[in-house]
Amino acid sequence: MFGAGHLLATYGVVGVGVVLFLETGLLLGLLLPGETLTILAGAFSHVQHAGQPHPELAMVILMAVLGAAAGGQLGYALGRSAGGALHERPDGRIYKRRYLERTHEYFERYGAETILIARFMPFIRTLSSPAAGIAEMSVRRFTIYNVVSAAVWAVVVATIGYALGGVLDVERHAVPITLGIIAFSCIPAAIEYVRHRGR
């Protein structure tokens, strides 16, 4: 039901935007193949085979940007709402007010980089928007980096799919390709982590 090929064949390019919205906005990153679907849509926009969809690359990118950005904004709004309640909550066994304060300090210093880097990391991008909302990152600052990161991510991932579409059977190799993109996109985060540990 949630296979990328099935979703794309059933719902077309609109499905790309809807899946990315649900993945980033409603904490469904563990269930929905947003990255794989975008790669596959990019690949199908390059080559056309009988029985397969053939979307326009520009439409794939547009829907991916809209879905990812709107989902990020929803996740931020939900986090902001939850954060207000957490500020009033007393310390307990699991929840400590100092955790909230540390999250706020982190997003004050590294919020922009986090939103940009997390966009390329499945599961992490699903959590980064609510975390930014809980940390009360400014709406304007979050919105700018959310939209920019969504646009950069959509162009990069869909274009990679487009380029690979003429070389590989991307539907068959979609998962290894997705894992490769994830591994590559983790490099900046790993470098930043090492630098942070050094400081």
Please outline what is shown here.
The chain is mainly alpha-helical. The protein has helices at 4-25, 34-44, 57-88, 97-118, 124-134, 139-165, 170-198.
The SSE order reads: HHHHHHH
Shape: elongated
How many domain units? 1
- Count the E strands: 0
Q: Provide the low-confidence segments as ranges.
A: none
On the 0 to 100 scale, the average pLDDT is 78
Number of helical regions: 7
What about the largest sheet?
Answer: none
Percent strand equals: under 5%
Separation, N- and C-terminal Cα atoms:
46 Å
Helix coverage percent of residues?
over 70%
Radius of gyration: 18 Å
How would you portray this structure in words?
The protein has 199 residues and is mainly α. It has one domain (4-198). It has helices at residues 4-25, 34-44, 57-88, 97-118, 124-134, 139-165, 170-198. Helix 3 packs across helix 5 and helix 4 (97-118) crosses helix 5 (124-134). The model has no long low-confidence stretch (mean pLDDT 78).
Keywords for this entry:
199 residues, mainly alpha
What order do the helices and strands come in, and which of them pair?
Layout: H1 4-25, H2 34-44, H3 57-88, H4 97-118, H5 124-134, H6 139-165, H7 170-198
Helix pairs in contact: 1-2, 1-3, 2-6, 2-7, 3-5, 3-6, 4-5, 4-6
